[in-house]
Amino acid sequence: MLPAALISPDLIETAAVVGKESAISIFVDADACPVKSEVYRVAERYALRVYVVSNAPIRVPPSPRIEAVVVGDRFDEADDWIAERAGPGDIVITADIPLADRSLKAGAEAIGNTGVPFTPASIGMAMASRELLSHLRSMGQNAGGPKPMSPRDRSRFLSALDEAVQKLRRRAGGSSP
Questions:
Q1: At how many degrees (to 10) do helices 151-172 and 36-46 cross?
Q2: Whose CA is closest to 29, among 88, 76, 87?
Q3: Closest CA to 52 of 8, 63, 19, 148
Q4: Residues paired with residue 37 on neighbouring β-strands, in sequence order
Q5: Max Cα separation, the chain?
Q6: Residue 135's pLDDT is what?
Q7: C-alpha closest to that of 53 among 88, 98, 83
Q8: Burial of 129 (0-12, 13-18, 19+ CB in 10 A)
Q9: N or C: which end of the chain has fewer CB within 10 A?
Q10: How far apart are the first and last CA of the chain?
């Protein structure tokens, strides 16, 4: 056994988390989510529950804390499932702006696939931009789609997710690994 002076405080806090599930849950709007593997890594590190919600079966890692939820194929059914369950102390991962809005209104944190957090201050502009682009598309204007994921986006996503977990753990009075 190592002397207490040689044991890192981070190691002690991480060991305290092992085997102890956090009250924080992550809800992933999974059908077109490019950062599922990053979510699984962070969830494993903090012992978080993850719901991977989709309209079709998606493979998830074998873990008692990761659950694949397959909903019907009705429009926005996955969004509805998430919005009905996510609340304060939870994190929603989505590129869907209306789902992010509903999540924020329910008290959850919401993070886009590129790592940009949705906030009460930013969601109004995001909703307005979405409506404008939708209107332009309906008039035949090609507004283009989202840019492909870059390594920088993945890094930003990991940082944003880690920050959201840390914030929720501090709010709940938990320790951080």
A1: 30
A2: 76
A3: 63
A4: none
A5: 70
A6: 53
A7: 83
A8: exposed
A9: N
A10: 21
How long a stretch of residues is the chain? 177
- Torsional sign, CA 154, 111, 53, 96: negative
Q: Which residue has the tokens 């981070």?
A: 10
Tokens 């609340």 sit on residue: 87
Q: Tell me, what's the pLDDT at 8?
A: 35
Side chain identity at 167, as an amino acid letter? K
**Amino acid found at 129:** S
pTM: 0.78
pLDDT tens, position by position, for the chain (177 residues)?
333 443 333 433 433 344 455 789 999 999 889 999 999 999 999 999 999 999 999 999 999 999 999 999 898 999 999 999 999 999 999 988 899 999 999 999 999 988 989 887 776 666 556 565 565 566 676 656 667 889 999 999 999 999 999 999 998 885 555
As a whole number of angstroms, the distance between CA 5 and CA 122 comes to 45
